[in-house]
Amino acid sequence: MNRRLFVSAGAAAIVAAAGGYFYQRSDRPAAPAAEDPLAALLAMSLPDLQGKPQALSQWRGQPMVINFWATWCAPCVKEMPELDDMHKKAGKVRFVGIGVDTAENMRKFVEKVPVSYPLLVMGAGAIDVLRGLGNPAGGLPFTLVLNADGSINQKILGQIDPITLEKTVLALAA
């Protein structure tokens, strides 16, 4: 009796394992791929310095320079006036600063260093976004230059080279 029970239990286990194997291999739809980090960024709505939500998608179809920065980041602070000058010459190229900081710190900063392009607040959560965009250390400053179709033209980790970036921006504006 024990032998018959043992054989029956073993057969049931084999059938269950085979069924599980074939179920896993069946033609079920694949799990959706992880969302493209750039598409996720461009679909975001972030508060500006007054707290009003701004959708990055409002600039879709236009070349963009997206600069991730923070008030406590010395190279970020140094390049802000250069980015602002470029923005003024850029024509149809949109500039957006995304702060890895608090709105209060950013407001105090722009009182001393005026910036003519939109500044949006993402806070510390931006570090994960930076990593997804190909900046594994989450270092700042980090600048993305996007073509009008939303594809990445250039990624810059660290302080910009203003001459090189200006050439790229002016070419996109043409």
Helix and strand arrangement:
Layout: H1 2-24, H2 37-42, E1 45-47, E2 53-55, E3 64-69, H3 74-89, E4 94-99, H4 103-112, E5 119-121, H5 126-132, E6 142-146, E7 152-157, H6 162-173
Parallel strand pairs: 3-4, 4-5
Antiparallel strand pairs: 1-2, 3-6, 6-7
Describe this entry's structure for a reader.
The protein is an alpha/beta fold and 174 residues long. It has one domain (37-173): Glutaredoxin, CATH 3.40.30.10. 43% of the residues lie in helices and 18% in strands. The chain contains 6 helices and 7 strands, in the order H-H-E-E-E-H-E-H-E-H-E-E-H. The chain has helices at 2-24, 37-42, 74-89, 103-112, 126-132, 162-173, and strands at 45-47, 53-55, 64-69, 94-99, 119-121, 142-146, 152-157. Helix 3 runs parallel beside helix 6 (162-173). It starts with a helix and ends with a helix. Mean pLDDT is 86; it is low at 9-33.
Task: Give the ordered list of helices and strands.
Answer: HHEEEHEHEHEEH
**How far from one another are the termini?**
88 Å
The unreliable regions are: 9-33
What is the gyration radius calculated from CA atoms? 25 Å
What's the number of helices?
A: 6
Strand residues, percent: 15-25%
CATH level 1 name: Alpha Beta
Considering DSSP H and I runs of 4 or more, what fraction of the residues is helical? 40-55%
Strand order of the largest sheet: 5-4-3-6-7
CATH architecture identity: 3-Layer(aba) Sandwich
How would you describe the shape? Answer: globular
The number of domains is: 1
CATH topology call = Glutaredoxin
Number of strands: 7
Keywords: Cytochrome c-type biogenesis, Disulfide bond, Periplasm, Redox-active center
InterPro entries: AhpC/TSA, Thioredoxin-like_sf, Thioredoxin_CS, Thioredoxin_domain, Thioredoxin_ResA/DsbE_sf
Main location: periplasm
Domain Thioredoxin: 35-174
